[in-house]
Amino acid sequence: METQKSSTGLKVGLGILLVLFLGTAFYTSKLYTEKQESEKTLTTEKQQVMNDLNNMAKQYDEAIAASEVKDQDLVDARDRIQGLMDSLKVSQNSVNSLWRYKKKFLALQEEMDELLVENDRLKVENEYLATSLDSTQVQLAERTVFTDSLLVQNTELTTVVEDAAALQTVGLVGMGVIERSSGKQIPTERARRSDKIKVCFTVAKNTLTEAGDKELYVQVIDPNNNVLGSNDQVQFEDQVLNYSLISRFNYENRNLNICEYVARLDDSKFEEGRYKVNVFNDKELISSSEFTMK
Question: How many domains does the chain have?
């Protein structure tokens, strides 16, 4: 009887142990399955966060590339995203860890929205400023052209006034003269009998010319192309003028008759032929005439 009871108790104990073992195995299997599913979900969500961060980084790169002026705020924000991506790659797959990264991602997303809005606003302002600058440059160019035109006109007007104010001579004549001991002069066409060559001209009235002491260069050239008189030289920049005499006078802005004389050299006679007389105001030839002595 006791043996039968002992056998029954053993069977019951074995049954309980079997039930416990099967329950433990089922529970363990369920936990493993749930863990696998949880890790899979965490891996998927981690990859999603990584993809979102990649997209944000690309948006920053595009904004930086489109900006003519490097925006340091955009660069710094992109660097923060890159740092978060590097940290996420080596992080553990846990709910707490992933939640922290999601919070950081959301904060960066909000920051990016604000920065991109500000960047767009600055781009619009820069485009407006560039348009305004182009308009200003066009106006400056037009003003420069106008100013240059005025300068050219002013220069031309100054040249016209200077030309108009220059001394002019009229009625230039040359002739041989016989000079008596009394001082009386007798015009002659005979070269051998001439004591001097007389050159006369009128300095014309010109109210634009400044009154005062003036001088003109008189040049008398004989038939042999020799410059008579003093035959001195005066230099005007790259031009040299040989002259017979300098006619000096006081000009009072009205017609002024002037006569000058070129004497023959001692023991010499004037040559027969055509003589040429020129009058220069500085280097400018203002009057010319010819006469013949026989």
Answer: 2
278 touches 285 (CB < 8 A): yes
Average pLDDT for 219-244:
92
Query: Rounded to 5 degrees, what angle do the CA atoms 289, 200, 252 make?
Result: 120
* CATH number of the domain where residue 241 is located: 2.60.40.10
In whole angstroms, give the CA distance from residue 234 to residue 88.
95
Q: Six-digit token pair at 125?
A: 């302002």
Spatial separation of the C-alpha atoms in residues 154 and 213, rounded to whole Å: 28
Same domain, 13 and 90: yes
Query: 250 with 196, same domain?
Result: yes
Give residue 205's domain range. 169-293
Do 53 and 117 sit in the same domain of this protein?
yes
Closest CA to 194 of 261, 288, 142, 120: 261
Pair 288, 194 in one domain:
yes
- pLDDT digits 0-9 by tens, 9-39: 666 666 677 666 666 655 565 555 665 666 6
276: exposed, middle or buried (Cβ count in 10 Å: 0-12, 13-18, 19+): middle
Residue type, 127: E
**158 has pLDDT over 50:** no
Rounded Cα–Cα distance for residues 200 and 178 (Å)? 16
Contact call for residues 241 and 234 (beta carbons, < 8 A): yes
206 assigned to some structural domain: yes
Note whether residue 161 is domain-resident. Answer: no
